[in-house]
């Protein structure tokens, strides 16, 4: 959906920009010459009426010859707005809406978030080709990316595995390169999608701790939903999965571990699919107090 909007915005930018250039470089000078020619004809043929009335008629004739069509005036006025939106959205920050509870408790359904578009590099709009490398996703980052199964759909998950990492998730425990990721019990959390209370834990995955949800009482089996690229890099077994993350790819998981369709089911996210790092909730109309940063 966001990819379609980016394409639509680009098309509008090209159309309004082309019309603005045509107006500034050709149509406006032509109208000016036409108006001046009209005045020359008017001056060469005095009307014989009073000077005040003659001046009014002359001015009206000039304005008529110099009048800008409404649709051109609209495009010229709209072009700077589209240009500003396009530049900010393509290279600085982009807004997204959280559609589900897969990132609970960090992000709730209905959160409107901002995504940093330049932290991982400058990409050409629409084609999303990286032209300047400014950094790479870090373990623990919350990232928006194009869903590998359907790139027209945007997903948001947390980076768990970096290129070259071995990721093991078994018995609700996460291991990175053979080391268990530390967790601490942090009470219970009401999960609105399931209408139940689930256990909340603080996990030390990245540079800062983050909260996750899962229930030890709920058994979970993992099976791929598609034959994804580098499928041979993953091994599925009872209540667990082990994957070796390929170069240029990332292993993503939702914070709501029992309720997230993520890399455990559809594989790795290539770097070219990365949109940016989510960093700020700018509004939730159902809960305005949620405005602010998150980890």
Structure description:
It is built from four helices and 18 strands. The protein is of the alpha+beta class and 295 residues long. A hairpin with a 2-residue loop joins strand 13 and strand 14. The longest helix has 43 residues. The chain is elongated, with a radius of gyration of 29 Å.
Short account of what is shown:
With 295 residues, the chain is of the alpha+beta class. Strands 1, 2, 5, 6, 15, 16, 17 and 18 form an eight-stranded antiparallel β-sheet that branches. It has a five-stranded antiparallel β-sheet with strand order 9-8-7-14-13, with no helix packed on it.
What share of the residues lie within helices? Answer: 25-40%
Distance between the termini: 26 Å
Average pLDDT confidence is 90
CATH domain class of the largest domain = Mainly Beta
- Per CATH, the architecture of the largest domain is Ribbon
Listing every helix as H and every strand as E from the N terminus to the C terminus, the arrangement reads HHHEEEEEEEEEEEEEEEHEEE
Beta-strand portion reads 25-35%
Could you say how many structural domains there are in total? Answer: 2
The number of distinct helices, counting runs of at least 4 residues, comes to 4
CATH fold naming of the largest domain: Umud Fragment, subunit A
Summarize the main sheet.
Answer: 8 strands, antiparallel
Integer-rounded radius of gyration: 29 Å
Segments where pLDDT lies below 50 for 5+ residues?
none
CATH superfamily of the largest domain: Umud Fragment, subunit A
**DSSP strand count:** 18
SSE arrangement:
Elements: H1 2-44, H2 51-66, H3 70-91, E1 93-97, E2 112-116, E3 122-123, E4 130-132, E5 142-146, E6 154-161, E7 166-170, E8 173-176, E9 179-180, E10 183-191, E11 196-203, E12 210-214, E13 234-237, E14 240-244, E15 249-253, H4 263-266, E16 269-270, E17 274-283, E18 292-293
Antiparallel strand pairs: 1-2, 2-17, 3-4, 5-6, 5-17, 6-15, 7-8, 7-14, 8-9, 10-11, 11-12, 13-14, 15-16, 17-18
Helix pairs in contact: 1-2, 1-3
Transmembrane segments: 6-27, 68-92
Domain Peptidase S26: 72-283
Family: Belongs to the peptidase S26 family.
């Amino acid at each position: 959906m966001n990819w379609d909007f980016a394409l639509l915005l680009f098309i509008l930018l090209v159309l309004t920009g082309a019309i603005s250039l045509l107006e500034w470089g050709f149509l406006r000078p032509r109208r000016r010459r036409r108006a001046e020619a009209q005045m020359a004809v008017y001056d060469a043929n005095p009307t014989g009426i009073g000077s005040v009335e003659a001046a009014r008629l002359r001015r009206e004739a000039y304005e008529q010859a110099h009048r800008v069509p409404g649709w051109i005036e609209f495009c010229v006025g709209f072009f700077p707005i589209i240009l500003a939106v396009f530049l900010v959205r393509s290279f600085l920050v982009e807004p997204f809406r959280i559609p589900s509870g897969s990132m609970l408790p960090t992000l709730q359904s209905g959160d409107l978030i901002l995504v940093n578009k330049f932290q991982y590099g400058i990409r050409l709009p629409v084609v999303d080709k990286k032209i300047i490398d400014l950094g790479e996703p870090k373990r623990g980052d919350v990232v928006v990316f194009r869903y590998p199964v359907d790139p027209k759909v945007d997903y948001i998950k947390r980076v768990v595995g970096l290129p070259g990492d071995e990721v093991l998730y078994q018995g609700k425990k996460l291991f990175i390169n053979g080391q268990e990721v530390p967790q601490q019990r942090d009470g219970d959390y009401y999960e609105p999608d399931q209408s139940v209370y689930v256990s909340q834990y603080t996990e030390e995955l990245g540079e800062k701790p983050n909260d996750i949800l899962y229930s030890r009482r709920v058994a979970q089996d993992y099976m791929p939903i598609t034959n994804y690229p580098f499928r041979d890099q993953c091994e599925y077994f009872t209540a667990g999965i082990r994957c070796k993350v390929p170069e240029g790819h990332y292993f993503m998981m939702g914070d709501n571990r029992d309720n997230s369709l993520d890399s455990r089911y559809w594989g790795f996210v290539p770097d070219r699919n990365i949109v940016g790092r989510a960093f700020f909730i700018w509004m939730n109309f159902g809960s305005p107090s949620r405005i602010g940063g998150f980890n």
